[in-house]
TrEMBL record:
It comes from Dyadobacter koreensis. The keyword ATP-binding does not apply. Residues 1-25 form the signal peptide. Residues 250-409 form the Thioredoxin domain. InterPro entries: AhpC/TSA, Thioredoxin-like_sf, Thioredoxin_domain, Thioredoxin_ResA/DsbE_sf. PROSITE patterns: THIOREDOXIN_2 (PS51352). This is Peroxiredoxin. Keywords: Signal. It holds the Pfam family AhpC-TSA. GO terms for molecular function: antioxidant activity; oxidoreductase activity. It comes from the Bacteria.
Length: 417
């Protein structure tokens, strides 16, 4: 009896193993190496580049390439000829079908039911160019390397932006900063007196098209939607944004913040809790859907780990795509694990500026995710910083880090009240 049962188990195990191997063998092969894709946004083709590498089993790593920036995404087979490339914390994915010729076709879709637009794309292996095929380059009329003050055209007054470009022959890398954050790294080309840039780091494609009027003036449009934002630009080595510490502030009569929100376990946490008393507290208004918030987290998470022993605490107030704690637990746990966040993450509500105004009544002129609020040991708000400029902005990021460290050092050095 025991021998028969053992034989039965061995046979079942062998069959399962055989079926698993057969299932894996049925998956279509995807070519490793460099790829070039194109998103179809209306009538516009927005190119992006990525690399594919195989991991163990059926899993793959897809790496988006934007200038010097690399973003790794995990991919897996969801059918023998279909992949799901999950885009990290953005609750979005690339659903891709492997065609018979080895190319991919599919769409960028939100993983939040009923949310987000669907953006079709196609991709071909073995191609590394962005916009211009090798051998079809046109000599640039000018080199636009440097900083540019960008003025937005439109009916409503809009704060100036700053563009930073690096051109090498026909190849162009760049980034555009605004008071609410930056575009992340963009990559493209200069052809004659025209330039074009695109970017894709997970949340959706971005696009810039411009014309070089002369060596000191440019004009063009930003955006891959139906109504791109038109701009004009002037070369300016001293181009700068409005002071990020003077855009969001407390209403008259307020010196402190007061809030209570649930953590990832559903426990109510208040700024007035004993844990935060007498400490410098950094409050980050963020969302897992927000690229600049993710860049800020990548700065904040390791900084906190290095400095928490000095009497510093931090709180992430998350405003998510759905006003649902269970949904937020999933998105925020993913964020926490990915970046090893060791400070408290609280769910504050749906991602909406009006919701922020309702939940944090002391705030005036809330403009952007992320926004950083620094509270001193006496419990009073000392600084509020709007937006975030990531590492790709170069000197802008370096200046932010330098001021941040100096300001926090002073607040940490203050005696306990």
């Amino acid at each position: 009896m025991k021998i028969n049962r053992l034989l039965f188990i061995l046979v079942v195990m062998a069959l399962c193993s055989s079926l698993s191997i057969k299932s894996q063998a049925q998956n279509k092969q995807i070519k490793e190496g460099g790829w070039r894709g194109e998103f179809k946004v209306g009538e516009l083709d927005v190119p992006f580049n990525f690399e594919v590498k195989k991991k163990q089993g059926n899993e793959l790593v897809v790496t988006a390439i934007n200038g010097d920036r690399r973003d790794d995404f995990n991919a897996k087979f969801i059918a023998p000829d279909s992949l799901l490339i999950t885009l990290n914390t953005f609750e979005a994915g690339l659903f891709a079908k492997i065609e018979n010729d080895g190319s991919l076709s599919g769409a960028h879709k939100s993983l939040v039911p009923g949310a987000g637009r669907v953006i079709p794309f196609t991709a071909k292996p073995g191609q590394s160019y962005r916009f211009v095929e090798p051998g079809k380059e046109v000599k640039p009329t000018a080199d636009i390397t440097g900083k540019w003050l960008v003025k937005i055209k439109g009916d409503k007054p809009t704060a100036d932006r700053v563009a930073v470009f690096e051109q090498k022959g026909n190849k162009l890398n760049g980034i555009i900063l605004s008071i609410t954050g930056d575009s992340r790294e963009l990559q493209g080309n200069v052809q004659g007196d025209e330039f074009v840039l695109s970017g894709f780091t997970g949340s959706g494609p971005s696009y810039v098209k411009g014309k070089i009027i002369d060596g000191k003036t440019i004009e063009g449009a930003i955006g891959a939607g139906a109504t791109p934002t038109k701009f004009s630009g002037t070369r300016d080595d001293n181009a700068a944004l409005a002071d990020a510490y003077a855009l969001t502030f407390l209403k008259p009569g307020y010196e402190k913040l007061d809030f209570t929100f649930p953590d990832l376990n559903g426990n109510q946490v208040s700024l007035s809790d004993e844990k935060y008393k007498g400490k410098v507290v950094i409050i980050e208004l963020l969302g897992t859907w927000c690229p600049n918030c993710i860049d800020q987290v990548q700065f904040m998470a390791p900084w906190y780990k290095e400095n928490k022993h000095l009497g510093v605490e931090a709180i992430g107030l998350a405003f998510e795509a759905k006003d649902d704690l269970e949904f937020a637990k999933k998105t925020l746990t993913k964020l926490k694990n990915r970046y090893d966040i060791q400070y408290d993450l609280l769910f504050a509500g749906k991602a909406d500026k009006e919701v922020v105004a309702q939940k944090l009544v002391a705030l005036k002129e809330f403009l952007a995710f992320p926004t950083t609020i620094i509270v001193g040991r006496d419990g009073k708000v000392k600084e509020i910083h709007t937006g975030f400029s990531g590492k790709g902005t170069g000197q802008f990021y370096d200046d932010y880090v330098k001021k941040w460290n100096a300001d926090l050092a002073k607040l940490i050095a203050e005696p306990l009240p």
